[in-house]
Each structure stands twice: as C-alpha cells, then as structure tokens.
Amino acid sequence: MTIIIQEDSFSISKMILELSEKDNVGAVVSFSGYVREFSKEKQLKYMELEHYPGMTEKALESIVQKAKSHWGIEQTTIIHRVGKLLPKDIIVGVIVSSRHRSNAFKACEFIIDFLKTDAPFWKKEISDKGEVWVSERQEDIIKKTNWNKLD
C-alpha cells in the first residue's frame, strides 16, 4: 500500500504502470479526480486543500484495509494533492491491482467513496462569487452508507 499526500502534480499513468508490473496482477483499475471549473453555478478560480498530516494517511490506510478485507486486492496506491489547485488540475488518484477485474473495480470505487467522506481533507473554493468551505455532499454520504451493508 502506498499513500502519498503532496502539493505537486503527478502522472497517473506512471503509477498504473508501476502496479501493473507487480506479481499476481490480473487487473489494474484506476480513478483520477480533477478540479471542476464550475461548482453550484459558480465559476471556480481555484481551490485550496488542507489536510491533517498523519491523521489523513491513517484514515486512508484504514479505508484500504477495509477494501482488502472484502475483495482481496493485491496492491493499492492513493495519491492526493493539497495546496492551491486550479480548474482541470488532477487532485486525486486511486489505483488498485488484483488478480481479478471485478475485485479491482469494486475496491477502487469503495476506496474513493470512503475517501470522500472519511479522510480529513478540507476544501475551500474561491470563485467569482467569493469563498466557501465545501461540506460533505449528500450523494457521497449515501454511497458510503450503501457500502456499509457489506458488513
């Protein structure tokens, strides 16, 4: 398991290649998240992301462990950016390898759904209409709740 929190941009394709070269890989599934240009009818100028060092990594490790317990995945890489991000910048990457594609798909979706609700990141959007801290979206809470039915 690799978890990286950084300000710099990254290459998701390089990370996919690294996981695909490991043993026992039958599938590699990835998710790439980008900063949207618009948020609730506002034109975004930029976004500022903060995190709680140490706590954020532990939360992400816990999410990956839950995914492993359900789907037996081989390797996982999560990379998340913090700092000032512009529209269209890559913000997050989740890459999962597994012996079987179904496990990799499910685990990747599980990880990103829980990352959105359980990882201590704080986002502030600066737009043409001012500044606002982004709160949890109801849609993300529902997705997480649906996964909780696995236990």
Salient structural properties:
Aldehyde Oxidoreductase, domain 3, 4 helices, 36% helix, 151 residues, four-stranded mixed β-sheet
Description:
With 151 residues, the protein is of the alpha+beta class. Helices cover 36% and strands 36% of the residues. It has a single domain, classed as Alpha-Beta Complex (Aldehyde Oxidoreductase, domain 3). It has helices at residues 12-20, 55-71, 101-118, 138-147; strands at 2-6, 27-34, 38-39, 42-51, 75-81, 83-85, 90-98, 121-127, 130-133. Helix 2 (55-71) packs antiparallel against helix 3 (101-118) and helix 3 (101-118) crosses helix 4 (138-147). It is globular. The two termini are 22 Å apart. The model has no long low-confidence stretch (mean pLDDT 92).
Q: Structural class of the secondary structure composition?
A: alpha+beta
Rounded average pLDDT: 92
N- and C-termini, Cα separation: 22 Å
Q: Please give the CATH class.
A: Alpha Beta
Estimate what percentage of residues fall within beta strands.
35-45%
* Gyration radius, rounded: 16 Å
Under the CATH scheme, which architecture would be assigned?
A: Alpha-Beta Complex
Q: Helix share of residues?
A: 25-40%
User: CATH H level: which superfamily?
Assistant: Molybdopterin biosynthesis MoaE subunit
Briefly note the CATH topology name. Aldehyde Oxidoreductase, domain 3
- What is the count of β-strands? 9
Please tally the helical runs, counting DSSP H or I stretches of 4 or more residues: 4
Morphology = globular
Tally of domains: 1
For the biggest sheet, the summary is: 5 strands, antiparallel
